[in-house]
Amino acid sequence: MLFLWRTGGEGESNVTQRGEGLVAKVRRAAVVLGLAAACVGAAGCKLCTDFPADNPWNTDISGYPVHSNSANYIAAMGAAKTLHPDFGTFWDGGPIGIPYVEIGADQPRVPISFYYPDESDPGPYPIPPDAPIEYGSDHHVIVVDHERCELWEVYDATRLAGGAAWSAGSGAFFDLTSNALRPDGWTSADAAGLPIYPGLVRYDEVVEEGVIDHALRFTVSKSQKGFIHPATHHASDSTNANHAPMGLRLRMKSGHSCAALSSEARVICTALKKYGMIVADNGSDWYISGAPDPRWSDDNLHDLSSIPGSAFEVVDTGPILH
């Protein structure tokens, strides 16, 4: 049983808030139609990618300059601490990681209410009644529609009436054909105001395809009151300039060798050198997010725990906003 369920320009303002704008709808429809034509006769072809090729999540940062405060940021996270895969098979009675569900364009939308409505995109949301809820404290629900090129994410979800309706802390919609950000100061289903799905390590990428072509999501225990785009929200009152702002991007040093590690760890290392990882939430230091799957080898993933924080450097991707 998989924990991927299947049923039925950077910086621009996100016109999807409070109802998607007509221009955005027309643009996304044109992209979908173009990809649909390219998909004719191709088995398993998706009608859209996970955001455009020039989206920050998909950007090669291997040549970006090292941030002037890199050493202090790394020290604050713990240079001697090590990476930790916050995903895998099962632990403590439940699946490890953040699950997601893939839907079709015919998935019905259902009512949803939020206790942070001012920074949430209003419902209804196309959440299947049996959508997986993240095991643990954050209770994320992630819904991906590669036919309509839509991503819907929810924080602290509760299923009501058998899934006929939902309640949650916050919710966000993302157009997978657009680089639009959420308004500055807005959260999402993640503390940083980022989408969660594009930063997850997924079994199909690592084991079946042998390549990750996007940045990864990770957490830190101490962050500052600030964010760097594509993040739009901070999650701290700290003014310590050495604590990571949300959206801070790290890269594994090119000289760090992962040759002795498992094949799974080597694929992740390659992605960390090319695309890096982005601070997306407060949590344990150096915890990398991924989707649960019973096919993972937890032992092989554990090889990541041999990689110290000192193997990373912070790259400069823009100013800190407050």
Write the SSE topology.
Layout: E1 4-6, H1 22-39, H2 70-77, E2 84-86, E3 90-91, E4 94-95, E5 100-103, E6 112-114, E7 141-145, E8 150-155, E9 158-160, E10 165-168, E11 170-175, H3 203-209, E12 216-220, E13 223-227, E14 244-246, E15 249-252, H4 263-274, E16 277-282, E17 287-289, H5 298-301, E18 312-315
Parallel strand pairs: 1-5, 2-17, 5-7, 6-10, 12-16, 13-14
Antiparallel strand pairs: 3-4, 7-8, 8-11, 9-10, 12-17, 15-16, 15-18
How is this structure best described in words?
With 322 residues, this protein is an alpha/beta fold. It has one domain. Helices cover 15% and strands 22% of the residues. It has helices at residues 22-39, 70-77, 203-209, 263-274, 298-301, and strands spanning 4-6, 84-86, 90-91, 94-95, 100-103, 112-114, 141-145, 150-155, 158-160, 165-168, 170-175, 216-220, 223-227, 244-246, 249-252, 277-282, 287-289, 312-315. The strands form 5 sheets. Strands 2-17-12-16-15-18 form a 6-stranded mixed beta sheet. It has a 5-stranded mixed beta sheet with strand order 1-5-7-8-11, with no helix packed on it. A 3-stranded mixed beta sheet has the order 6-10-9, with no helix packed on it. A hairpin with a 2-residue loop joins strand 3 (90-91) and strand 4 (94-95). The longest helix has 18 residues, at 22-39. The chain is globular and about 50 Å long.
